[in-house]
Amino acid sequence: MLIVGINGAATTDPTENGALRLLTESLASARKESEFHAHPVNTEIIHLHELGMGFHEGEFDLPPWTEKPFALLNEAAGIIFSSPVQNYTMTPAMSNFIDYFYSLEKDDTSHPFAGKVVGATAHLHTDGGMKTVGDIVVPLNSMGVLGAPYAGVYQNKYRNKRVNENRWQEFEHLLAGENVVRLAMILLGYRIDINNWL
After folding, report:
1. Rg (Cα) of the chain, in Å, rounded?
2. What is the mean pLDDT of the segment spanning 17-45?
3. How many angstroms separate the first and last alpha carbons of the chain?
4. 3-state secondary structure (DSSP) of residue 116
5. Dihedral angle at the C-alpha atoms of 14, 15, 16, 21, nearest 10 degrees?
6. Side-chain-side CA neighbours of residue 163 (13 Å)
7. Residue 162: what pLDDT?
8. Residue 157, C-beta contacts closer than 8 angstroms, at least 6 positions apart
9. For residue 54, what pLDDT is reported?
10. What average pLDDT does the segment 24-44 reach?
11. 181 with 163: CB under 8 angstroms?
12. Which residue in 25, 78, 24, 77 sits closest to 47, CA to CA?
């Protein structure tokens, strides 16, 4: 089974960007969860800034750069999107990449993402985290994806680590990885033991 992470940050170094750090930690959590259930998964990251993406203009013919990332997504049982928050939403690269998904739906019968399990994380400096997660997940919902429980999370760089109500931001992104794997395993017919989704 494959879980693919989509990095909307302009770096491949998780120490340079909070969104990529959340993604790499979520994918590590997915691997750990899958090993716990004795069904190890593979993970891959698509770094959007490396794709040479042009703007999507509503065309159905896919450009050559889409071949490799879309092949990975087609194989994936689960996808975790992660983006820095810019102007209260996802990065333009993430938005543009999601726009290309519509090119895969050429008619009423082709829904290549239907049944795939998704999660989303966002990293921010001020506000807009939950809106960004929604901006990522809502268009995907119209493509038939399944959102894993507790898998739409954000983290504020300037959270007050001493205030108890903010402690959830320290670990909740790990649930994105765990629960994407759990739901994907259930959908694929694996017998797994879970007590709860938290």
Report:
1. 16
2. 93
3. 22
4. coil
5. 40
6. 6
7. 52
8. 18, 123, 124, 125
9. 87
10. 94
11. no
12. 24
When the candidates are 3.40.50.12780, 3.30.70.20, 3.40.50.360, 3.40.1190.20, the CATH number that belongs to 2-187 is: 3.40.50.360
What residues form DSSP beta bridges with 44?
Answer: 4
| Strands 78-84 and 146-156, bridge-based pairing | unpaired
E-only strand ranges, the chain: 2-7, 42-47, 78-84, 117-124, 146-156
Eight-state DSSP code of residue 54: P
Instruction: Tell me phi and psi for residue 163, to 5 degrees.
Output: -90, 125
Which pair of structure tokens corresponds to residue 181?
Answer: 């794997």
Give 74-83 pLDDT, tens digit per residue.
999 999 999 9
Q: Model-level pTM?
A: 0.91
- Boundaries of every domain in the chain: 2-187
| Number of other residues whose CB lies within 10 A of the CB of residue 2 | 16
Give the strand pairing for 146-156 and 2-7: unpaired
| 126-154 confidence digits (pLDDT tens) | 788 899 999 999 999 988 999 998 888 88
